[in-house]
């Protein structure tokens, strides 16, 4: 059962003092300009993930939220913003009610797997402008358990209304769209099936070190290539797993960082972009919207891809990892396959990603959780270190929605 909703939180002297202290006002001849507040990730957590047959999606939301709040060390009364999508008729109103929250700032943006990076950008802007002090991003899904219990069927398409009606009659499923894009990259740049398969192999190797990952047994390139065909060129192991699970991320204004349990991870820059919904309107199958969202996030953060120590990118299919790294600027277009074989490349999807760790529907929020854990030095599996042995300083999380329809990118840093 959810906890009762808290009474409206009064503005205390301490809160007023902090807000004034950190407003960083500067007076000009005509006006007073307030510096935007810096925004930090104060808490992150996973709910139970993998095979969770008994919980409801609401319960996973609540579990993740409680754990993230405990991770932050802050009081729940501080939360005055909520971002949620994918659950309920009036998302995020139903989730807020279940959690016993009465937020004054909400976001229900739904753009597929990129939802959470886009929401994180919106929340950071709201906090910086003073529209909220602490925003909870929370997600939970029983995608696997629902199919197992026959509460739903596997979704082969997103429907046949609107523009999609012109593609659905031809059996153009979601996976077929990704497969078509992958085939174009193979044709245009000479990318090989072995290079795509290597993405799955490396994801599984990372998952093998992560006790929270759903699949941990090693696989080989031959295992990937010889698996049952799903949509050419994707065999089964080219595709993400289906799991249950949830997670939460708590963003706060800079004046509350001193009360946090751990050192802050700062939101340095964000970017978002949408591309298309029908394949006929996609100008280039080898370019994802991360080419725009990534550029914006890096510019706003004042860093370059070469500065990044760890990258968490959406990987519903192996091709997504390859093309997203290209579009974020880690390597030139067409060289993603070769780049992923380099020993000194940026570590990618350190928890095992959606290909091996977990994928309960919209996975974008899990990317932020793993990026924060890496920067804190709290990764449950593979912990990235810089050449000098120190913890990573900068991380990027980039989510993709639909069939490369949307992208959100967030640059995070310890300094």
Describe this protein's structure.
The protein is α+β, with helices and mostly antiparallel strands. The protein is built from 13 helices and 13 strands. The protein has helices spanning 13-21, 57-72, 93-99, 115-129, 143-148, 174-189, 193-208, 221-225, 290-301, 318-328, 336-339, 353-356, 364-376, and strands at residues 25-27, 32-34, 39-46, 81-83, 105-107, 134-141, 229-231, 234-235, 245-253, 265-274, 310-313, 394-401, 406-413. A hairpin with a 4-residue loop joins strand 1 and strand 2 (32-34). The longest helix is centred in the N-terminal third of the chain and has 16 residues, at 57-72. The protein starts with 12 loop residues before the first helix and ends with a strand.
Task: Set out the fold topology.
Layout: H1 13-21, E1 25-27, E2 32-34, E3 39-46, H2 57-72, E4 81-83, H3 93-99, E5 105-107, H4 115-129, E6 134-141, H5 143-148, H6 174-189, H7 193-208, H8 221-225, E7 229-231, E8 234-235, E9 245-253, E10 265-274, H9 290-301, E11 310-313, H10 318-328, H11 336-339, H12 353-356, H13 364-376, E12 394-401, E13 406-413
Parallel strand pairs: 4-5, 4-6, 11-12
Antiparallel strand pairs: 1-2, 3-9, 3-10, 6-9, 7-8, 10-13, 12-13
């Amino acid at each position: 059962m959810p906890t009762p909703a808290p009474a409206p939180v009064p503005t205390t002297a301490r809160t007023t003092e902090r807000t004034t202290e950190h407003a960083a006002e500067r007076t000009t001849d005509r006006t007073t300009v307030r510096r935007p507040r810096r925004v930090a990730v104060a808490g992150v957590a996973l709910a139970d993930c993998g095979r969770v047959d008994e919980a409801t999606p609401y319960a996973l939301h609540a579990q993740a939220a409680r754990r993230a709040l405990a991770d932050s060390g802050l009081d729940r009364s501080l939360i005055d913003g909520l971002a949620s999508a994918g659950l309920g008729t009036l998302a995020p109103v139903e989730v807020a009610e279940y959690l016993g929250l009465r937020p004054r700032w909400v976001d229900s943006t739904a753009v597929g797997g990129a939802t959470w990076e886009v929401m994180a950008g919106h929340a950071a802007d709201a906090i910086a402008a003073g529209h909220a002090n602490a925003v909870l991003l929370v997600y939970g899904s029983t995608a696997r358990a629902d199919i197992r219990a026959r509460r739903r069927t596997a979704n082969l398409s997103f429907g046949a209304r609107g523009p999609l009606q012109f593609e659905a009659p031809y059996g153009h499923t979601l996976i077929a769209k990704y497969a078509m894009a992958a085939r174009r990259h193979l044709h245009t740049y000479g990318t090989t099936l072995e290079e795509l398969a290597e993405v799955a192999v490396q994801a599984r190797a990372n998952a093998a070190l992560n006790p929270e990952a759903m699949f941990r047994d090693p696989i080989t390139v031959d295992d990937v290539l010889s698996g049952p065909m799903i949509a050419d060129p994707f065999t089964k192991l080219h595709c993400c797993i289906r799991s249950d699970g949830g997670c939460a991320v708590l963003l706060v204004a800079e004046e509350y960082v001193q009360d946090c349990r751990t050192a802050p991870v700062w939101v340095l820059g964000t970017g978002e972009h949408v591309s298309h919904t029908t394949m006929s309107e996609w100008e280039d199958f080898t370019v994802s919207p991360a080419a725009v969202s990534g550029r914006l996030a890096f510019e706003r953060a004042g860093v370059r891809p070469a500065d990044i120590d760890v990258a968490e990118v959406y990987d519903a299919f192996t091709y997504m990892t390859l093309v997203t790294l290209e579009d974020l600027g880690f390597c030139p277009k067409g060289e993603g396959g070769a780049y992923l074989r380099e020993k000194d490349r940026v570590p990618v999807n350190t928890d095992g990603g959606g290909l091996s760790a977990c994928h309960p529907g919209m996975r974008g929020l899990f990317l932020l959780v793993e990026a924060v854990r890496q920067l804190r030095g709290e990764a449950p599996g593979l912990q990235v270190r810089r050449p000098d042995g120190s913890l990573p300083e900068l991380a990027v999380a980039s989510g993709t929605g639909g069939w490369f329809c949307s992208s959100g990118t967030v640059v995070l840093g310890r300094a």
